[in-house]
Amino acid sequence: MGSPPSDQRAGPAAMFVQITGIPSAYHPGKRSALHELQQNLSFSQESTWLCRSNVKKGIRKGVGCRMLFLSQLQPRVNFANYVRSTGSWGPRTIPDHQIIFVISGSAELTLGVHSYVMEAGDCVYYGNDSPHQIVSSKTEGIAFYSIHFSWNEGADSPFPVLPHLGLRNCSEDMLQIPPLPSKVNVENYGEVLLPHHVSCPEARNLFAEIVQEYKQEEPGYLAHIGSLLKQIMVLIVRKAVNGRATLSQRKKIEPALKAILEQPLEAWTTPWLASLCGYHPTYFAEQFKLVTGYSPNRYLNMEKIRTAKRHLTNGAGSIGSIAELLGFANIHYFSRWFKLATGLTPSEYRGKNPL
Predict the structure, then answer these.
(1) For 170, phi and psi rounded to 5 degrees?
(2) Of 212, 202, 177, the residue nearest 81 (C-alpha)
(3) Is the pTM higher than 0.90?
C-alpha cells in the first residue's frame, strides 16, 4: 500500500483504499444480467486467479491505492443479504470488500494471524485479497447482515457487480497472510486504521435498511444504500478513534505479547505475564484488554486454538500427541475443549482439512 502524503492535515479527511480491476457492472434486477455475467466469466476468473496467485506468494501485484476524501466517497453496494446459519465460510478470498453485522449468535473469524470472536452487535470488515475464514457456533449458530461493496466504484458506475464469481477458496496456509489495510486520515486527528473487528450495535438499523432497500429496489435505492453505507463507515471510524489504544499503552503489554507469540505452547498465566511487564495482575489485565480487546485468558485460549488447528492441518502427529503438546491431561478433555471452541472434534477438523 502506498504512503500517505506528507501534509496529512491539509484538506478534509482522506481515505486510502485498494482499487482493483472488476468486470463490467450489471444490475442484479435485469434479466440481461446473466448474459453479461457469462460474457465476463473468463475475464473474471483470470483476473481473480492472478490476484490469488500473488497473495499465495505474499505479493499483491496490480493492487494499487489512491487517496480518496471521505466526504467525496461514493461506495457501491454490490450485494446485501441476511444470513442465518450454523455453517462456515472459507478459507477464501473475495473480489471486493465485505462488512458484516452480527445480529445474534456467534462465530470465529480468522483473518491473517488473528482470530476474532464475532458476537451480537459486532462489525467485521475485510477487503479483497485478504484470506479469511468464518466458523459459526454449532450450538447457537449465527445470524448476520452481510454487505459486499466497492469503495469508490459508484463514481464510475452505480450498478452493483455481484461478487459470487470472484469468490475463491484458498488453503489454510494462506490464512497466515496479513489482510490488506484500509486507512483514513482524519482532519485535525491523524491517520486511523479501519478496524477489522469492532463493537458497533448502533449500526444495526443501518444494515437492516440497506438489506431491505437492496431487495426491494425502489426508485433511487442505489443512491440511498450508498449513503447508508457511508454512515456505517463514519460510525466505525469514530469507534476506532475513540477506542483505539495509544502506542504507549501497547508498549505496556508488549513483553507479554512477544512471549505468547514466541512460546505459544507455554502454560502462561495472567500473573506470570503481568510479571514480565512489571505490573500487578489486575492492572495488567485491564491494559491487556484495552489493547487487544480480550482478557489474557481469552487471548491465550484463542492462541491455543490456533496452534491446535495448525498442528491438525499440518499432520503434526496423532491427536493424542497434539493434546499432550498443548498441555491437556488426556485426549478426551482436549476433544471436548476443541469441539466447544470450533464446533468440530479434532478428527472432524482434520478430515475437513486434509494434507
Answers:
(1) -140, 170
(2) 212
(3) no
CA 126 to the chain's CA centroid: 4
CA dihedral 208, 228, 153, 191 (to 10 degrees): -110
Tell me if 3 is assigned to some domain. no
pLDDT averaged per 10 residues in sequence order, the chain, 355 residues? 33 32 35 36 28 35 45 85 94 95 94 88 92 91 96 73 91 87 65 83 95 95 94 87 67 90 86 95 89 80 83 81 84 86 84 62
If asked whether residues 33 and 113 sit together in one domain, one would say: yes
User: For position 153, what pLDDT does the model report?
Assistant: 65
Kindly give the residue spans of alpha helices, DSSP state H, lying in the chain. 33-39, 41-56, 204-216, 221-243, 247-262, 270-277, 281-292, 296-314, 319-325, 331-342, 346-352
pLDDT of residue 316: 66
CA distance 257 to 267: 14
Total number of domains constituting the chain: 2
CA-closest candidate to residue 158, choices 229, 208, 209: 229
Is the CB of residue 237 less than 8 Å from the CB of residue 200?
Answer: no
> Could you say which of 219, 243, 267 is where a domain stops?
243
Are 64 and 199 in the same domain?
Answer: yes
- Tell me the CATH number at 149: 2.60.120.10
Q: Which grid coordinates are listed for 84?
A: 442465518
Residue 31 is predicted with a pLDDT of: 34
DSSP sequence for 28-49: TTSTTHHHHHHHTHHHHHHHHH
Alpha carbon distance 58, 325 (integer Å): 30
Residue 68: name the closest of 131, 150, 126 by CA: 150
Distance, CA of 42 to CA of 167 (rounded, Å): 14
Angstrom distance (rounded) from CA 51 to CA 43: 12
Domain around 333: 247-352
Is the same domain home to 274 and 200? Answer: no
